[in-house]
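QA checklist item 7 of 12: single-chain prediction sanity check.
[x] sequence parsed
[x] length recorded as 398
[x] structure emitted
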Amino acid sequence: MAVAGRTDPYLTIGSHRVESDRFWRWGDDNLFPEALALMARRSTTHRRIINDKADYISGKGFTCDEAQQPRLAAFVRRVNGRGESLRQVLNKAAFDKSLFGNAFLEVVTDAGRTFLSLYHQDATRCRVARDSQHILLHHDWRAFNPNEARTLPLYPLFEEQEDGSLRSAIHYKDYEPMFEHYGVPTYIAGFGVSAIAYKTDRWNISRLDNSFQLSGVMMLDSTVDSEAEADRIVRLAERKFAGNPGQVMFVIREGSESDHSRFIPIASQNEGDWQALHEQAVGDIVVAHSWFRTLSGLDYASGFNAERILHEYEVALNTVILAEQAELLEPIRGLLKTVLGIDASSLQTVNRPPTRSKPIYMKVWEARKADGLDYDPEDPKQQQFLSEITKYNIRSIE
């Protein structure tokens, strides 16, 4: 990470949890990705947006000139030895980039350039090497062991591995000033509101666990001879009166002839404030992600407005989705050209809105025009109707 005001502008920061000069730390303790992943698991709206952005960016599959480029079509259907399609691999990369601001793909070929494979690498396992020309992969960065790490050169460099293959790593990252070696997620300004949304949800869960009992003070009349006896009385009263987890403070006072034990409730009038705080936090999360409410499933309670969904999808398509798709596909097109000699200019992502916006009798060039893509009314392929290519697109997804 880059730090301003240091002699070396790219000096890494860290709390010495991981002692090594072989890589650049990702966050203060080198565990920033783990913190981001944990936050995404706790905030429902935050996680929904990340899931949806990844799905929209990876699209519904890919189309290409199958008649002229059968090898390209075969690559789209199967990009690695695990049998994954191009869409499956890029969906994982899009998810990582939306969550971490970084994504990594491993590229595999051989000296004869007879094949090309792409594998997604979990971003939490990857760190940039100190020379800034390699990626280190390790299964547990809390206990880094150089002997257990694997090294890959950054694309376009390739290096021969022990199995004889040539491998490289593509590093996608979102630009952020002052950060040289890792990208920063677009929702960086929304960390606080994501935490607020999580905490307001947790507050409601706490109320449910406590059977919506009132908070208050439990006054107990009792004479105790020791601290241990006082603690035993508190624990006994807690089990009897407090519920789980309980929001009751116990006060033990000197007992008298008559028992004056009583519960003094504390009425809370701030429930409306909590609700408003939660709603504001949710709205701020959407803004921080540069995303849209209806595409996050937030406004369905007020009615399903198909026109608004389509409108926001078109804005998202032209401001976020197409740009991210171009960034993901650009190095892959380059690899197909340099490694396999395949012209992948016809490779395009199939984008479809969450609701139907184009009639199936619309021609391909008309649909491409409506989506802001390049189109050619004279191209025989683009003269097809959408209904004719639907079956192919479904097969591409699978």
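[x] summary fact logged: Residues 1-19, 391-398 have pLDDT under 50 and may be disordered.
[ ] second reviewer sign-off
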